[in-house]
Design goal:
The chain starts with a helix and ends with a strand. It folds into 2 domains: about 130 residues, no CATH class; about 140 residues, Immunoglobulin-like, CATH 2.60.40.2970. By secondary structure, it is mainly beta. The strands form 5 sheets. Strands 2-1-5-6-7 form a 5-stranded mixed β-sheet.
Length: about 280
């Protein structure tokens, strides 16, 4: 009898995990999000766009652990944490409640850096097995890439940064355009440029005055078609004064947070999320 119970439990477990085809999230030995729920996964932001309203939140009762599977293989574990928590996880995490529309599930990750600016923890979200699992069901989308092309100091407080946005995806994306919005409105949504001094460690910021621009407008956005690039130059004339030395520039490129009804436009999708890009340079 005991042997039959063990065999039955073993078979039940195998049946549960034999169904983990494609991309899946498991909590408490239950599949709470399967590939059948997914419309597409934006790999640039690790935001999962769902076919229907997100039922994942109903599975959360307190701080918990989740596991990501790709084609039946466990890839990584992560934490569920409250939005107001001061806990700084070293693993991927999902916040509760969710900041975005209920059809979107972001999986976040916080890099830790050493004194030289190198990451101290590896981000497991980019595992090639996850990409393969998503591609199996046509759910992989690369999203956007952002790169700092140059940082120029006109004076100790006048700084210019050039960023380039590239769309390697098959989707056309609408992106926020700082030239159309104006620098104050644009920086209401993003911190923009900030600079880290390596030794001694210090952080320097821009001093842009922002104001709530109110409800968003399509006129703020520019369409970046598939395989296209677009560059922006942003000038800061009241940046923190920095002494000579070696620095890392960081730029936070944000997308516009919209409802599911506004996500898809006639000729493209409104890109959402955040990309932070880095650039090493020297001030002499």
């Amino acid at each position: 009898m005991i042997l039959l119970i063990i065999l039955a439990v073993s078979c039940e477990k195998n049946d549960n995990y034999s169904s983990l085809d494609g991309f899946n999230i498991v909590m408490n030995n239950q599949v709470v999000l399967s590939h059948n729920d997914i419309d597409y996964y934006d790999f640039s932001t690790h935001m999962i766009y769902l076919k229907d309203e997100n039922s994942f939140a109903s599975e959360i009762t307190s701080r918990d652990t989740f596991y990501v599977y790709a084609n039946r293989q466990k890839i990584y574990r992560g934490d569920i944490i409250p939005n107001f928590s001061s806990y700084m996880p070293s693993e991927p995490y999902i916040t509760d409640p969710f900041f975005y529309s209920h059809n979107i599930l972001p999986i976040n990750f916080m890099h830790a850096f050493d004194e030289s600016g190198k990451p101290m923890n590896e981000d497991p979200r980019g595992d090639e097995r996850i990409i393969a699992a998503l591609k199996k069901y046509g759910q992989y989308h690369s999203g956007l890439e952002c790169e700092i092309k140059s940082v120029s100091y006109i004076s100790n407080t006048d700084v210019s940064v050039e960023i380039e946005i590239y769309n390697p995806d098959s989707y056309n994306y609408y992106i926020m355009d700082p030239d159309k919005m104006g620098i104050g409105s644009y920086h209401y949504f993003t911190n923009g440029l900030y600079i880290t001094h390596l030794e001694p460690h210090a952080i320097y910021y821009n001093d842009i005055v922002t104001g709530n621009p109110g409800s968003w407008k399509m006129e703020w956005l520019s369409l970046l078609k598939a395989k296209e690039r677009k560059s922006f130059t942003i000038n800061y004339n009241k940046f923190d004064n920095v002494p000579p030395g070696k620095y890392i520039a960081h730029f936070q490129f944000f997308g516009l947070n919209v409802t599911k009804e506004n996500l898809v436009q006639a000729d493209g999708r409104i890109w959402q999320g955040e990309i932070t890009t880095d650039f090493q340079f020297e001030v002499k």
